[in-house]
Design brief:
This protein has seven helices and 13 strands. The chain is an alpha/beta fold. The radius of gyration is 17 Å and the shape is globular.
């Protein structure tokens, strides 16, 4: 019997990056179920739609079964596991995210990480995967997320294939506590790119808003990196390697 993977993301179910991940997981032998937001739900962390009704609809021709859900990544995984799937999947995968999810502040804000975390909260193996992109390519893909530039396609496919193999390797291993595997791929990733364990870089961003006509609007800045070099996720990606960070939310030591 094929193992089952539940996939979600925070870029929306129409994004080419999750479609590529579905194809890679199917090629790896998974039965793929998708429960993903109807539109982009980035930068939302582990938010749940507490104060409104969440609606959903079937999404044809994606995996074995797919639902487009008008909610957050956490909503999607929680509703799928609690109400839509007849049996629990073997693994939950969130991504492939458009842009990296590296550094501690970004990881805490990430809808991609949150989707995987919700899977881990159900005692399931959980993987979040993200791909670093040059700024111009990021902006292009972000504007037209349903399309992937031709030059980027082989690197996206290599990243998705690696994620699928990694997720397959988690099946059958004991799940203890609540932890999430976060994979960050460099923009130039290939099938031979090595992976290294890493820790989240600590970055201070200060304000992420700028004044606007009637208030404030979001304005990204690179911030100041407090932890440098070594085995931070940023350092590993900058060396052109795959960053593998494990978030262990069930093992919180004393301050």
């Amino acid at each position: 019997m094929k193992p089952t993977a539940l996939l979600t993301n925070d870029d929306g179910i129409n994004a080419a990056f999750i479609h590529a991940l579905v194809a890679a997981c199917e090629a790896e032998g998974f039965k793929v179920i998708v429960a993903a937001p109807a539109g982009e739900r980035s930068w939302i962390g582990r938010a749940f739609s507490r104060h409104r009704e969440v609606t959903l609809s079937d999404y044809p021709n994606l995996g074995s079964q797919a639902w487009s859900i008008d909610g957050t990544p956490s909503d999607c995984v929680n509703i799928a596991l609690g109400h839509l799937l007849k049996t629990q999947p073997d693994v939950v995968i969130s991504g492939m995210n458009i842009g990296f999810n590296a550094t501690m502040p970004l990881c805490l804000s990430s809808g991609t990480l949150a989707g995987a975390t919700e899977g881990a909260a159900w005692n399931l193996p959980a993987v979040a995967c993200s791909m670093d992109l040059e700024q111009a390519i990021f902006e292009s893909v972000h504007r037209q997320s349903a399309e992937c530039p031709g030059a980027l396609r082989p690197h996206l496919e290599a990243a998705c294939q690696h994620t699928a193999r990694f997720a397959r390797g988690l099946i059958g291993q004991p799940v203890r506590g609540l932890h999430v595997h976060s994979l960050n791929y460099p923009a130039t990733v290939t099938n031979t790119t090595a992976m290294e364990r890493s820790v989240p870089a600590l970055v201070r961003h200060g304000s992420l808003f700028k004044p606007s006509a009637q208030g404030f609007t979001f304005a990204w800045n690179d911030g100041e990196q407090v932890s440098e070099g070594g085995q931070t996720d940023l350092a590993v990606i900058e060396r052109g390697l795959i960053s593998h960070t494990v978030f262990d939310f069930g093992n919180v030591g004393p301050l």
